[in-house]
């Protein structure tokens, strides 16, 4: 049995704006990461830094389908896929799945944490893209490595 973290949200912006909000590091640093070594593009490998942690995260095997999907690997066991669907009212449905972990006690904790994490990612992205609000700023300072 494979464990799959999932989260979905509807963002009141056109699909082109939501897509750009995901692949453009200048946008993503306003709601998710603190640094990126570049724009998300098919075949590229990136390094991401998060504001709460000292570690850098390798983002590999990036695959982009413009205005439809973004996928990448940042954990050797899982694939992250972000799918976009334009809605009749010109908003965008954003679905995130991260899958690949086998069922065990440690991975069950991973599932809970990553499901929560992707829901937070989507809420922060919605707040930023719709209203210019940076929900993540200061939200996880308690997690900083001292």
In words, what does this structure look like?
The protein has helices at about 15-25, 25-30, 105-130; strands at about 1-10, 35, 45-50, 55-65, 70-75, 80-85, 90-100. It is of the alpha+beta class and about 150 residues long. The chain has one domain (about 1-140): 2-Layer Sandwich (Alpha-D-Glucose-1,6-Bisphosphate, Chain A, domain 4). It has a 7-stranded antiparallel β-sheet with strand order 1-7-6-5-4-3-2, with helices on one face.
Defining traits:
146 residues, alpha+beta, Alpha-D-Glucose-1,6-Bisphosphate, Chain A, domain 4, 7-stranded antiparallel β-sheet, 7 strands, 36% strand
The CATH architecture term is 2-Layer Sandwich
Query: Main beta sheet, described?
Result: 7 strands, antiparallel
Based on Cα principal axes, name the global outline: globular
Number of helices: 3
Rg on CA atoms, Å: 15 Å
| CATH fold-level assignment | Alpha-D-Glucose-1,6-Bisphosphate, Chain A, domain 4
Beta-strand percent range:
35-45%
With strands numbered from the N-terminus, the spatial order across the biggest sheet is 1-7-6-5-4-3-2
Overall residue-averaged pLDDT value? 94
Q: Please give the CATH class.
A: Alpha Beta
Span from first to last CA?
Answer: 37 Å
How many discrete structural domains? Answer: 1
Order of helices and strands: EHHEEEEEEH
- Low-pLDDT runs: none
Corresponding CATH superfamily: START domain
The number of distinct β-strands equals 7
Which percent range fits the helix content? 25-40%
Structural class: alpha+beta
Please specify the SSE layout and strand pairing:
Elements: E1 2-11, H1 15-23, H2 25-28, E2 35-36, E3 46-49, E4 56-65, E5 69-75, E6 78-86, E7 92-102, H3 105-131
Antiparallel strand pairs: 1-7, 2-3, 3-4, 4-5, 5-6, 6-7
